[in-house]
Amino acid sequence: MEEEEEEEEEDDSFEDAVCSKTPARVNTPLSVITEAFENLADLLKPAEKDEEEIGLRLDAFCNACTHVSILFSCLGFAFKFAEMEYISKVKDLVEASKSFDTLQNILDLDVEKETVKTPGSHSRNLRRVRQGLDLIRAIFEQFLMTDEYSLKDAATTAYTQVCAPFHTWAVRTAVYAGMYTLPTRDQLLLRLDETDQSVEKNMRRYMEASLPIIEYIDKLYIERNIKLDW
């Protein structure tokens, strides 16, 4: 009987040793961002089922958005302007989250005050943050089209589609000139601590999770008769 107990203890010790050698999950910058937006997208699902929409909490939205700035940083000089603008707008919304519960709340107040498009208003800053999220999504989409597709081509196409129509000539010129300083595909993977396989998985996860957030924000403006051409 004692021998059997000793054998069981040895088996348990062996299992513990094997489990302890199992590599822990590595959280890369991209995987952290992806998980944050998947959690944010999950918050929208209950609202979609309810007759009365509670709304997306502003603090939860800001929490997910704060992680994204590192992606702009990885792109280097070409997107320095986008990085600085994005960070400043997110900081403003973080401060606003101390006074407002939801994204709807800040929009409704600016609609009432007729300051939706006023520089510095929360609604304008929300619009710019939304463009930043969409820019990253579009870059990922273009980046994954083919193995040979360069980051420069991907970023140029994405910027032209998402941000260029709303930027001044001076900003557009600076951004396009900076495209030549973008990292190579391999350099980007190194900066993100990703492999070819993991980066594709995480980029697709972000694209899928961020799209309903982007569409939700657009819907908030459209429901209040605010055009999206600015």
Automatic annotation (TrEMBL):
Phylogenetic lineage: Eukaryota, Viridiplantae, Streptophyta, Embryophyta, Tracheophyta
Tagged with keyword Transport: yes
Protein's recorded name: Glycolipid transfer protein domain-containing protein
Pfam entry (one): GLTP
Family the UniProt entry places it in: Belongs to the GLTP family.
A GO cellular component annotation in the UniProt record: cytosol
The organism of origin for this protein: Microthlaspi erraticum
Gene3D superfamilies: Glycolipid transfer protein (1.10.3520.10)
InterPro entries hit by this protein: GLTP_sf, Glycolipid_transfer_prot_dom
Keywords attached to this entry: Lipid transport, Transport
Residues in Glycolipid transfer protein domain copies: 57-193
GO molecular function, one term: ceramide 1-phosphate binding
